[in-house]
Amino acid sequence: WAEEAVAKAEILRLIYQGRFLHSNVTLGALGLPFGKTTVMHLVPRENLPEPNSQ
C-alpha cells in the first residue's frame, strides 16, 4: 500500500463508534470488553473536531 502511505505517523487518528479518539483518551479508559473483537478505524487527519462537536 505504498500509494496510501502517510508522510508522518502523528496525523494518524483512531475512530471508535463513530467518534474520533483524542490523544488524552486511552483505550483502557473506553472500558472495552476483554477478549472481544473491537472494530476501530485508523485514518490520516491533521486536525480533529472539538469533542463536543462530534
Automatic annotation (TrEMBL):
Which intervals hold domain UBL3-like ubiquitin? 3-54
Q: Which residues lie in coiled coils?
A: none
The protein's name in its UniProt record: UBL3-like ubiquitin domain-containing protein
Q: List the source organism.
A: Heterotrigona itama
